[in-house]
Amino acid sequence: MTDRQRELSVLHADMDAFFAAVEVLDDPSLRGLPLIVGHPSPRGVVSTSSYEARSFGVHSAMPSVVAMRRCPQAIWRPPRQQRYGEVSRQVREVFHRFTPEVEPISVDEAFLGIGGSLQLFGGAVAIARALKKEVMTTTGGLTISVGVAENKFLAKVASDLDKPDGLTVVPPGEGESFLAPLPIRRLWGVGPRTADLLTSLGLTTIGDVARVGEDFLGRRLGSKLGQHLSFLSRGIDGRQLNTDREARSISTERTFTHDLKKRDQILDYLRRASEEVASSLRKEKVRARTVRLKVRSGSFRTLTRSVTSDPPTDVATEIFRLARSLFDRVDLAGEGVRLLGIAGAGLLGGDAPIQEGLFDEGIERGRSVEKLIDSVNLMGGEGSIGRARILRSEEQDRSGPRLSAP
Q1: Domains in the chain and their CATH numbers?
Q2: Which of 23, 52, 101, 109 is catalytic?
Q3: How big is the CA angle at 263 (ends 262 and 268), to the nearest 5 degrees?
Q4: Residue 292, SS3 per DSSP
């Protein structure tokens, strides 16, 4: 292995159409069909879509009404965050088989520092190929696209160029020429407004940005952004991997088709959301020191409240109790609720020492019941068992026979 080959020390691994791919994995009859994960309602938003739906111009974060107009024949599935989290953990375990240096970016992508693994696995490209194969085998058929480069920015851009199931290598020292023909929106930090400004200056490709230089960009965009874009356009990115990065919160939220105005409807959803967050906390083997509530009113006012849980918790009944108390502190001024969300933040390892309270026996009983529910669902499949109150909720999305726990 040459010294130049050793410079290829960063991978960016990105699952392909992740949520949609998991839905197809669990229901093969969806394969090859235009599939959209989201809620087909006037207020819904596309979470992700299959490549077949993308061919009609559907993309993530698009309003559902626009997606329905562009692809009226699409099949819709509601998001299943717990299931996506399960698969994400499988994929992350694969990453750690190749290197301990993993920086997760989101549920479906991560940077991997492979400098210390090159000799063991035979080089960067060999690692990328083996990783792709392992992900497919471990998940039962999901594909992942990988970019291989000497720094994070180049690897990130590379992973997106040959989707799905791609493998793109940026040779050492060729970052600037690799980037030159690409559109300016590929540069980190270039949003719609900056893109419009750069275009008005006659800069439409990354090569154009590199050509005009840092001084020109600084005068037009400000010195900080100008330097940033000048460096990136030449393939320069000195940031190191943050391998200590962990999920800072675990959350779920939902936008409703119609504003919720009845308190029992609101509490029904908060119960379900608390169950989902608590289950994810236990699967990640963490507990939340803080519970956060997010409320968006019919007029789009967004209100947030938070409270410290003492001791930190992974119990749904406790999360719901705190979330309900937070909701009672929200003044909606007579409006309905358009969106609700719950998050567990300030995460501690589940085995971290915790000072239990004198009257925490009931909480521990709740944790025991919920761990039992986790075990049954692990054996029988997600949704095999749940609390009776949750199953009766009108907001329940699933159907079919299920067991219930008190």
Answers
A1: 1-172 (3.30.70.270), 176-233 (1.10.150.20), 249-405 (3.30.1490.100)
A2: 109
A3: 105
A4: strand
Based on the residue annotation, tell me whether 356 is a catalytic residue of this protein.
no
Q: Give the amino acid at 30.
A: L
- Maximum Cα interatomic distance, the chain, rounded to a whole number of Å: 69
- Tell me if residue 293 falls in helix, strand or coil: strand
Dist CA 111 CA 157 (whole Å): 12
As to burial, measured by CB atoms within 10 angstroms (0-12 exposed, 13-18 middle, 19+ buried), residue 329 is exposed
CB 376 within 8 A of CB 403: yes
Task: Establish whether the linkage from the previous residue to 164 is cis, with ω within 30° of 0.
Answer: yes
For residues 163 and 384, the model is more confident at 163
- The pLDDT assigned to 399 comes to 35
Nearest CA among 126, 129, 137, 98 for reference residue 114: 98
Specify the DSSP class assigned to residue 173: T
**CA nearest neighbour of 256 among 363, 395, 368, 141:** 395
Cα distance between residue 347 and residue 356, in whole Å: 17
Say how far apart CA 175 and CA 170 lie, in whole Å.
6
pTM, two decimal places: 0.70
- Residue 390's alpha-carbon distances to 199, 241, 395, 404, in angstroms, are 53, 42, 9, 9
State the Cα–Cα distance between residues 317 and 331, nearest whole angstrom. Answer: 24
Token pair belonging to 320 = 């719901």
Residue 49 and residue 371: Cα distance in Å, rounded?
33
- Split at pLDDT 50, 70, 90, the class of 321 is very high
Residue-by-residue DSSP string for 239-263: PPP-TT---SEEEEEEEEEEEE-SH
Question: From the CB of residue 121, how many other CB atoms can be counted at a distance below 10 Å?
Answer: 18
